[in-house]
């Protein structure tokens, strides 16, 4: 069975309990959430949930149908990964020493990551990039002592088209 990945951009009413209801929909039907990010839009009564899920085509269509049935859901847009621009933010704390300090700084430079905090033994690194590049950075740091990682989850907007439609 082929596993596909789909991104759902879900506009919902910004009030308590809505996140729980949407997460419950996934839980009750055994749909997996690969990534979930939620925040207010430019209108403070509307939030945007960006949900990344994977499954066969039937499962992904079912997710969209079930989301559209929810009363708190205003609008559901679905994207294939190639139809949108995705970004994720990651903060990573690493332990460094004089032997690996230069290597860490070079990796950060190549990956366009920034060192945002530092102490005698630790560095905090920030990167905002595609989920694939975030995974690549994590892989590059496997030989270095990663202390802690925090990731936002994927955010996505549809690509702008040639005729200025978005």
Q: Brief description of this entry?
A:
The chain has 166 residues and is α+β, with helices and mostly antiparallel strands.
Question: What key phrases describe this protein's structure?
Answer:
single chain, 166 residues, alpha+beta, Alpha-Beta Plaits, 2 domains, five-stranded antiparallel β-sheet, four-stranded antiparallel β-sheet, 4 helices
What is the CATH architecture term of the largest domain?
2-Layer Sandwich
Average of per-residue pLDDT values:
92
CATH superfamily of the largest domain: ACT domain
| Percent of residues in beta strands | 35-45%
Cα separation of the termini? 33 Å
How many structural domains in the coordinates?
2
- DSSP summary, beta strand count: 9
Determine and state the CATH class of the largest domain.
Answer: Alpha Beta
Write up what this structure looks like:
By secondary structure, the chain is an alpha+beta fold. The protein folds into 2 domains: 4-79, 2-Layer Sandwich (Alpha-Beta Plaits), CATH 3.30.70.260; 85-156, Alpha-Beta Plaits (2-Layer Sandwich), CATH 3.30.70.1150. It is built from 4 helices and 9 strands; from the N terminus they run βαββαββαββαββ. The chain has helices at residues 18-28, 57-69, 101-111, 131-140, and strands at residues 4-13, 35-40, 46-55, 73-79, 84-95, 114-118, 122-129, 145-151, 155-158. The strands form 2 sheets. Strands 5, 6, 7, 8 and 9 form a 5-stranded antiparallel sheet that branches. Strand 2 and strand 3 form a beta hairpin. 20% of the residues are buried. The model has no long low-confidence stretch (mean pLDDT 92).
